[in-house]
């Protein structure tokens, strides 16, 4: 069996500039939208003819920020608190024998203009600049299984955390929302998912964290197990 060499057909533009800020599934942060930009020679209108008839897509992508060759047969899924191990193939862990991921996303619009082919998407779970290897339409009759069993991840995770803003952070948000509407809501959606590693969740420390969203570093701290305080928002 020969090795397979893959060439990206596109990249995705998202507000998530680092792994730490990315939601664990695409539908958890509604304001975290993305745009797929096809690369030459695939950036031709003929390649996406008819795609606008589909409401959702499958994206096959590369975990390009994961060190290659570092995988283990078992992993600790966040949904199990990072304390229990399951087989790597019983998880969606990023550290895999082949660094490939699969994501179902909503297609909002297909744009073909000035030599560019852009796919405007709804909520995404990919880091900005992630290479895309293939795009396939989502077929409801074949892909949807309403009664499917999803093991330890049967239900959507709850977002019980409350997010507050310091006066300094609130002032920064007000200025940013003049050109980036709903930025405060977006921050809340991201932080309510608790982006920390699973083994840190539910614990309190004096540590100040930062997430890189768009061109801003959002610095925050846990007040207690239920409340987060956004301390400051700095332009990067």
Automatic annotation (TrEMBL):
Gene3D superfamilies in the cross-refs: YaeB-like
Sample GO molecular function, one term: tRNA (L-threonylcarbamoyladenosine(37)-C2) methyltransferase activity
Keyword field: Methyltransferase, S-adenosyl-L-methionine, Transferase
One GO term of the biological process aspect: methylation
PANTHER family: TRNA (ADENINE(37)-N6)-METHYLTRANSFERASE
SUPFAM superfamilies per the UniProt record, alphabetical: YaeB-like
Signal sequence residues: none
Presence of keyword Transferase: yes
Family: Belongs to the tRNA methyltransferase O family.
Name of the protein this chain belongs to: tRNA-Thr(GGU) m(6)t(6)A37 methyltransferase TsaA
Residue intervals of the TsaA-like domain: 6-147
Protein source organism: Alitibacter langaaensis DSM 22999
InterPro entries in the cross-refs: TrmO-like_N, TrmO_C, UPF0066_cons_site, YaeB-like, YaeB-like_sf, YaeB_N_sf
Keyword S-adenosyl-L-methionine included in the entry's annotation: yes
One Pfam entry name: TrmO_C
């Amino acid at each position: 069996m020969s090795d397979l060499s893959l060439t990206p057909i596109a990249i995705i533009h998202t507000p998530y500039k680092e792994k730490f800020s990315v939601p664990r599934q695409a539908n958890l942060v509604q304001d975290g939208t993305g745009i797929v930009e096809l690369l030459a020679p695939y950036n031709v209108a003929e390649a996406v003819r008819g795609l606008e008839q589909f409401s959702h897509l499958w994206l096959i992508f590369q975990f390009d920020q994961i060190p290659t060759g570092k995988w283990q047969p078992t992993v600790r899924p966040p949904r199990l608190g990072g304390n229990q191990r399951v087989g790597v193939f019983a998880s969606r862990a990023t550290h895999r024998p082949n660094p490939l991921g699969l994501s179902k996303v909503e297609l909002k619009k297909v744009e073909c203009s000035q030599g560019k082919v852009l796919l405007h998407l709804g909520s995404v779970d990919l880091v900005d600049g992630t290479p895309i290897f293939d795009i396939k339409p989502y077929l409801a009759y074949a892909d949807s299984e309403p009664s499917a069993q999803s093991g330890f991840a049967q239900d959507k995770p709850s977002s019980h955390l409350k997010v507050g803003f310091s006066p300094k952070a609130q002032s920064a948000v007000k200025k940013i929302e003049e050109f980036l509407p709903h930025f405060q809501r977006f921050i809340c959606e991201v932080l309510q998912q608790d982006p920390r590693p699973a083994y840190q969740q539910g614990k309190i420390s004096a540590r100040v964290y930062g997430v890189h969203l768009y061109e801003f570093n959002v610095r925050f701290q846990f007040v207690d197990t239920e409340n987060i305080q956004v301390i400051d928002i700095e332009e990067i």
